[in-house]
Write a structure and sequence with these properties.
The protein is an alpha+beta fold. The chain folds into 4 domains: 2-108, Ribbon (Umud Fragment, subunit A), CATH 2.10.109.10; 117-148 and 172-201 and 400-438; 208-223 and 231-373 and 382-396; 441-518, no CATH class. The chain is built from 8 helices and 25 strands. Strands 9, 11, 12, 14, 15, 16 and 17 form a 7-stranded antiparallel beta sheet that branches. Helix 4 (175-197) runs antiparallel to helix 6 (411-437). The two termini are 41 Å apart.
Amino acid sequence: MALLAAGWWWFAPTRVGGSTTYVVTHGISMEPNFHTGDLALVRPAGQYKVGDIVAYHSSLLHLVVLHRIVAIHKGRYTFKGDNNNFLDPVKPTRAELIGKLWVHAPGAGWALVALHNSILDVVVCGLLGVFLVFGFGEKRRRGRGQRRTAKAPGHVGPTIMKPQRETDPPQPVNFGALLTASAIAVAVFLVLALVAFTRPAHKPASLTTRYTQSVSFGYSARVPAGPVYPTGRIGTDDPIFLMMVHQLNVHIGYRFDSVASSSIAGTEKILLRLAGPGGWSRSLVLTPSTRFADGKTSTDVTLDLDQLRQLITRITRLTGNGAFADLSVTVQPVLKVSGTLDGKPVSASYEPGLNFQFQGPELQPSAPATSSTSAAPSAGALNYTPKQTGSIATPTTTPTTITVLGVSPEISLLRWIAIIGLVLSIAATVYFYLRKRSEPFEESFQIQSQYGHLIVPIVAGEDLGWPPVDVPGIKSLVRLAESGQRLILHTRSDDVDTYLVNDEGTVYRYQVKPSKVIWGEWTEKPVQAAA
């Protein structure tokens, strides 16, 4: 009991009231100390310090993460994987820590994962049930046999047995059926092993890491305060009247986002694109190419609306096309970024734009020109924050699966099931075979099974009309029958089997009274087995 209590205290999982958490590792962040499929046992600690390997709940990934503490600041813990070149984005508190590494068992995690599979559970429970049923039936049979032969203490005379009720007959174990079932199980698990071990456990795949590029546009201007602009300022989405607004400030903010760690740098150039009828366009550089780091930048440019109107008037006069009076103006950042994302190289570009349309005395903003994959804004509203999503694919491997009856288990799991199932079913087959061989049986059954081709049943009374000569065993009677090319006559009376051979007027007889013998010990004089 003391050992059981100690084992419970140290190894009982938290889900059943214990204090140990079983963590199966996945990924390469803790290599070379930990690999995919390792088993880590973690337990709560009174104190956590820098350098400890600790499991915690990640609010970002919604998973349990096993990493090393590299810093502690104001009650929050900073973690990092031994194989990572970046810090974990989540800094958990003490309440989010699960426990410190206690035991590390390389490769043992696969067995724990296999135990949680429903197919393996059914196999193990089925075989366990067979052994339990067999053990219970054997114990009950032996108990009844002991009750039939037991004698009271000091009793000398014969034992008086109470007749057994017909409604409660003994239930012998059918070892033949169990032997057949276990042999079928061996064949099934052998086929499963052939299927599992002739297929690769893993197949090539790619791991997709997504990222988002976003640009936030806005504009503002200072104007004289009055009935049109009471505050003296123009903000994003306000109308722009050219008679009052002469300079317009445009704000451009860029950001590269991903749930994975990233190190991004790039360049930004701001262009002013003019577009007119017939596909005509012209680009002016507002700011030259400048570099930025940390995956974000912010830039402000100023548009001189009076100069723009003069340029449009000149273009209209030179082309003679009045449609140029309403050409569109686009403030367009040209962004090119590169760096690493989740430790892998990434390169991308993005060129959204904020559009304005000259319409008479007013400059009207329109939806930014972009190849964004984000949802379109609702009717009547402009999207001033266009986004573009992208991803990088990293070559990796994924477990191979096979679909059977709507279930898709992994090949590695099927290998474990096949190995365990083969071991258990072969052990059960050998066990049931030995028990079948040691099971007592009637001698007449063995005679019929071995010499049935020579035996002819007859109907006879007590006097067969011949003086019989008894022989010591059935084999002697068989030799007489075979030497004279005769048949063996068989009759049964009062539970006694009589076998006869008539050899030229002499009748040879062998009688078998009710008795049980052990398979493999059947001789001329059968070995009696306990009733």
